Amino acid sequence: VNQSKLDLFCKLGYGKQDICKVLENLGPEALEDDVLKELIRMGSKPQALENQAQPSPLKLVARGSCSTTPGLKWLGKDESDSSDSLRPIVIDGSNVAMSHGNKEVFSCWGIQLAVDWFRERGHTYIKVFVPLWRKEPPRQDSPISDQHILEELEKQSILVYTPSRKVKGKRVVCYDDRYIVKVAYEKDGVIVSNDHYRDLQNENPEWKWFIEQRLLMYSFVSNRFMPPDDPLGRHGPTLDNFLSKKPVIPEKKLQPCPYGKKCTYGNKCKFYHPERLHQAQLSVADELRAKTKVLLTLGKEEERCNCSL
Questions:
Q1: pLDDT, tens digit (0-9, with 9 covering 90-100), for 255-266
Q2: What does 241-286 look like in DSSP terms, one character per residue?
Q3: Among 54, 88, 89, 296, which residue has the fewest nearby CB atoms (within 10 Å)?
């Protein structure tokens, strides 16, 4: 079994037995994309690395339940089956790094800033995808800064290198965008990138919907990672709801009536009247009608009393 491929798909969270089975069927020369396709086809689901040997009942916890292991997010472990209420995050490392480096330098610090932002929000599943050749010493035509950050994130099982190799002196690179979209789609998570992945949208209608609905764009402002407050536009969900498995519907806040106590609309007024909370909200006309009705009733009663005398 090809050890490098085995390690790669283990990092993605797939079970060792499933990976070995697929590699045996496809052969040692199988491309990584083909292995991933076969794993998806056979229904293999990513599972927590620490639970591969002994399956735990925790793996069957329904989505959206409260997390019982919040501390794991700082250990960098793979909580693919954790039951927290926040969506898994899949970061396009190249896009984020080049964006932070002003499209001139591959800035690894930009990746760290993005990871830290999601960690502070409480996300327990964060994956960053970067091509393997970024491990190589930087060249003049492809500068890279703070390269040690990649090694640190890899140790925390946050960063995953997509495969690449050299054939007759030429670099053969696997399409890392495909890994990003596939893993995010399978995990029902969020893609962090300013890329629209139009080629992948055209390839699969389900991916098209997913990319349209789950792509989180961002900006860097003075070394601060900033996603928009309205990821899907002004009429879409808030950022908190976008990143949550269970969106919270905000309470409708009523606007106070601009006329206040002088308002003559009574209970027909669509605005909020705090002074009318404990009284019947009648319009002035309705109040006059009610008073007139009472006076007429009293007058008739008086007439009856006089007649009886």
A1: 788 888 888 877
A2: HHTBSSPPPPPPPPPBPTTGGG---GGG--SB-GGGTTS----HHH
A3: 54
